[in-house]
Amino acid sequence: MNRVFDTHFHIIDPRFPVVENQGFLPPVFTVDDYRERTAGLRIRAGTVIAGSFQGTQTEYMYDALSRFGPTFVGVIQVPATVTDEEILKLNAAGVRAVRFNLYRGGSAGIQDLDRLARRVHDVAGWHAELYADASKLDAVFDTVANLPKVSIDHLGMTQAGMPHLLKLAERGAKVKATGFGRTEVDVPAALRDLARANPECLMFGTDLPSQRARRPFAPSDMDLIGEVLGDALSQRVFWENAAAFYRPAELPQ
User: Who contacts 253 (Cβ-Cβ below 8 Å, separation ≥6)?
Assistant: First the structure.
């Protein structure tokens, strides 16, 4: 493993406001904090993820992406009324997806999922990213399955959601191998089953700073992926799948 694409982490810079979500305010976690925490992990590209506590603000994302440079991209929360001009401006800065936080709120809602996801894809080629308990996707399964591009956070969160998640993976959805300290799934079994369903679906992420997780990310989470999947599949999970999906402006060779 000579390079890693971290597809999921948050930047909480005190220069930009956050809003309380379910009684929670996140800890400060700046670009410098992220670099310090991930030193030695061979991370060469990554994805800054909008948190529920950041709502539909965008200035923190523009700032973070400018600091990280062209091998990093963003996933933003925007209102359903976002203009095409703002989508294209965010795209030029490196944003590659709209996030629907169905687990904690702070984003556009499930009622906007199909229309907004298709619109940002048509305007800028973005995908939709869902933070959701996969067991609760049954009512919108066909909507999610038929989106042009979609990813699911944190292995779908619950063991009860695995049947839905596996079906979505078989139909081309990406699934983030992230948040092992917050998900309730059997992680080794989920990794094996998802890789078997679609070798291109899994994408690694640190989930830093792991706010509200039972335990924070640890490098041993990366070791687990390697032990469960082996070298060839792990290379896809740590780099190839994400690089093809997120399309950074530049990638290290």
Answer: none
Strand partners, 101: 131
Q: Look up the pTM and report it.
A: 0.95
CATH superfamily of 4-246: Metal-dependent hydrolases (3.20.20.140)
Domain ranges across the chain = 4-246
State which amino acid sits at residue 226: G
Alpha-carbon distance values, 115 to 105, 121, 222 (Å) = 18, 10, 36
pLDDT digits (tens, 9 = 90+) for 53-112: 898 999 999 999 999 999 999 999 999 999 999 999 999 999 999 999 875 544 445 678
Q: How many CB atoms lie within 10 A of CB 165?
A: 25
Q: Cβ of 121: how many Cβ atoms within 10 Å? A: 18
CA angle 104, 128, 6 (to 5 degrees): 80
H/E run at residue 202: strand 202-204
- Check: CB of residue 123 under 8 Å from CB of residue 88: yes
The amino acid sitting at 127 is H
Residue 184 near residue 14, CB atoms below 8 Å: no
- The per-residue DSSP string of 28-62 comes to PB-HHHHHHHTTTS-EEEEEEE--GGGTT--HHHH
Q: Cα dist. 163→99, 135, 189 in Å?
A: 22, 8, 12
Distance from C-alpha of 156 to C-alpha of 203, rounded to nearest angstrom? 13
The total number of residues written for the chain in this structure: 253
